[in-house]
Design brief:
It is a multi-pass membrane protein. This is Transport system permease. Belongs to the binding-protein-dependent transport system permease family. Keywords: Cell membrane, Membrane, Transmembrane, Transmembrane helix, Transport. The protein is an all-alpha fold. It has one domain: MetI-like (MetI-like fold). It has twelve helices and no strands. Helix 3 packs across helix 5 and helix 5 runs parallel beside helix 12. The protein is elongated, with a radius of gyration of 23 Å. The chain starts with a helix and ends in a 6-residue tail after the last helix. 36% of the residues are buried. The N terminus is likely disordered.
C-alpha cells in the first residue's frame, strides 16, 4: 500500500511542477528580471536569518564570547579594524555582522507572524461582513473605519503600552514577541477585511454560491471552501506589501524602545543602539543594520509590486 502511495506522489509531483512552470504567474516572473533579483535577495536574507547560528562568525548573545575590550572596533578595512569583525563591533564588543544576522531572524519572524495573524483576522471578518451583511457588516466596517483614522504605528504603540502595563516590567520581556505580533497584526487587519468584504459582495450573487446554498451547504462551508479561493488574489498582494510594512513597523517600535530588549536585538534595536554613537564617529553600528533593513523592505515591496501587476487581469 505504501509503494502505491509513493508512486502516486512521485507522479503527482512532476505534474504539479509542470503546472506551475506553465502558469501565467511563472511566465510573468521569469520575464521580470527585477522580480527575480528581488526574490533572490529576499531568499538570501531569509536563509541567512534561518541559518544564522551556523554562518555567523560570533554568537552575539553569548556573554562568555564577548569582550568589552573589543568595543567600537571599526570595520576590518578601516584603520584600527580587526579581521575577526568584518563590519566592526558595537558598544558591547559584539560583532555587527553577527548581530545583523541574528537581528534579521527576529525582524522576519515578527513580520511573518504579524502578517499571518492580520490575514487570518481580516479574511475572517471580511468574509463574515460580506456574506451575512446587515448589522454584522455595519458593526465590522464601522470598527474598521474608526481604526483607519489612526496611523498603524500609533495603534501598535497603544496596544504595546497596554500590554506592557498589564504584564509588568519583569514579565514583559517574556511575552514581547507575542505582544509585537498582536500589536502589528491588529494594526493591519483592516486592509484585508475591506478587500475581502468587497470581493465577497461580488461573489455572493454568482451561480456557484447560489447552487451551494441550494444543495444545503452551510454558510461557513460556502465562505471558506467556495468563496475564499476566489478572493485570495488581492489578499496575497496585500500580504506581500504588508510584510515590508510589518518589518518596518517592528523596527520603528524597537527604535522607540518598546520592542525587543537590547539583549536580543532586532534590526530596529540595532539602529537605535548605533544612533547613540553615530555623531561620535562610530557610524558602522547603525549604518549597516539600516542598509540591511532598507534592502529587505525594498525587495519585498518590489515583489509585491510585481505580484500586483501579475495578478491584474487588465495588464495581461
Amino acid at each position: 500500500m505504501s509503494d502505491v502511495t509513493s508512486q502516486e506522489t512521485n507522479r503527482s509531483a512532476p505534474g504539479a511542477f509542470r503546472r506551475m512552470r506553465d502558469s501565467d504567474l511563472w511566465y510573468s516572473f521569469t520575464r521580470s528580471p527585477l522580480a527575480m533579483l528581488s526574490a533572490l535577495v529576499v531568499l538570501i536574507f531569509v536563509l541567512a536569518a534561518l541559518f544564522a547560528p551556523l554562518i555567523a562568525p560570533h554568537d552575539p548573545f553569548d556573554p562568555g564570547s564577548i569582550s568589552i575590550l573589543d568595543s567600537f572596533l571599526p570595520p576590518a578595512w578601516e584603520d584600527g579594524g580587526d579581521a575577526r569583525f568584518l563590519l566592526g563591533t558595537d558598544d558591547q564588543g559584539r560583532d555587527v555582522l553577527s548581530t545583523i544576522l541574528f537581528g534579521m531572524r527576529i525582524s522576519l519572524a515578527v513580520g511573518f507572524a504579524s502578517v499571518v495573524f492580520a490575514m487570518l483576522l481580516g479574511i475572517t471578518l471580511g468574509l463574515v461582513a460580506g456574506y451575512f451583511g446587515g448589522w454584522v457588516d455595519s458593526v465590522i466596517m464601522r470598527i474598521a473605519d474608526v481604526q483607519l483614522t489612526f496611523p498603524a504605528i500609533l495603534i501598535a504603540l497603544l496596544i504595546n503600552g497596554v500590554a506592557r502595563a498589564m504584564a509588568g516590567p519583569q514579565s514583559y520581556d517574556k511575552v514581547v514577541f507575542v505582544v509585537l505580533v498582536l500589536s502589528i497584526g491588529l494594526s493591519f487587519w483592516v486592509q484585508y477585511g475591506r478587500t475581502v468584504r468587497g470581493s465577497v459582495l461580488v461573489e455572493a450573487n454568482k451561480e456557484y454560491v447560489l447552487a451551494a446554498r441550494l444543495i444545503g451547504l452551510g454558510p461557513w462551508t460556502i465562505m471558506f471552501k467556495h468563496v475564499l479561493p476566489n478572493v485570495l488574489g488581492p489578499v496575497l498582494v496585500i500580504a506581500t506589501i504588508n510584510l515590508a510594512l510589518a518589518i518596518i513597523t517592528e523596527a520603528t517600535l524597537s527604535f522607540l524602545g518598546v520592542g525587543v530588549p537590547p539583549t536580543q536585538p532586532s534590526l530596529g534595536t540595532l539602529i537605535r543602539i548605533g544612533n547613540d554613537f553615530l555623531f561620535s564617529g562610530e557610524w558602522w553600528i547603525t549604518i549597516f543594520p539600516g542598509i540591511t533593513l532598507a534592502i529587505l523592505a525594498l525587495t519585498v515591496n518590489l515583489l509585491g509590486d510585481w505580484l500586483r501587476d501579475a495578478l491584474n487581469p487588465k495588464l495581461r
